[in-house]
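Lay summary. Proteins are chains of building blocks that fold into shapes, and those shapes determine what they do. In this project we predict the shape from the chain. Here is one chain we studied, written as its sequence of building blocks.
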Amino acid sequence: MTETKNNNGLKVLAGLLGVVLLGTIIYTVSLYQDKKKTETDLTEEKNLVVEDLNSLKSEYDKAILESNATNEELVSARDNIARYIDSVKTMKADISSLSRYRRQVGVLKAERKQLLKQVDSLTRSNTMIAMQRDSTYVELEKQTVFNDSLVVQNTQLADAVEKGSALNLSKFSIDAVRERNSGKLVSTSRAKSTDKFKVCFTVADNVIAEAGDREFFVEVLDPQGNVLGESYSKTNDDGASVTYSKGTNFYYENKSLDVCDYINKPSGDFQKGNYMVNVYDDKLKLLGTSKFALK
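And here is the predicted shape, written in a compact code that computers can read:
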């Protein structure tokens, strides 16, 4: 009887131990499954953090590429994210670390938004400056063309004024004369009787010419083409030169003016033949030519 009770007790104890062992096994399996699930969740969370960081880095790469000039703030932020990516990839995943990095991703997103806003503002500003610069360049080009046109017009106007202000002759005459004992001069056509040549010309009126002292140059050529008189020489600004017989001075007041001067006979008598007389202004412009003959 006692032996039967002992056997029953052992059976009960064995059953209890079996239940405890089964519970322990179930609990252990449950803990293992929970650990595996936690590790999987942490790995997925870690991958999500890396994915977010990679996405941020790609956005910075794009912003840097689209920027006309290298932005140091964008480059620094991108490099900082690259370091975070390396750090997350190599770290041992745990809830505390991942939570810290997840918060940091939020901070980095806010920072990215602010930086890209600044870059966008700067880009618009640079675009506006470039447009203003191009507009200014176009205006400068227009002004340069306009100024060049004014220079041409002013040059043409100056040339026109210079040409318009030049003096001209309205009359021109040559007379061979002899001087009587009374001092009176009478015309002659004979070489031996001629004492001097009387050269007369009328300067036409010109309201835009500059008033003042003027000098014209009289050139008398004998039948052999030699210049009579002292044979003075005059050269203008263009390098042209004239050998003349006499310079005739007068004061011009923009009104028609009669001027006469005399070319004295050289040593000996005037030669027979054809003579030519030219009158030049102070810039050696030929104003008039006349020919006559002595017998």
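What the prediction tells us: Helices lie at 2-66, 72-90, 95-165.
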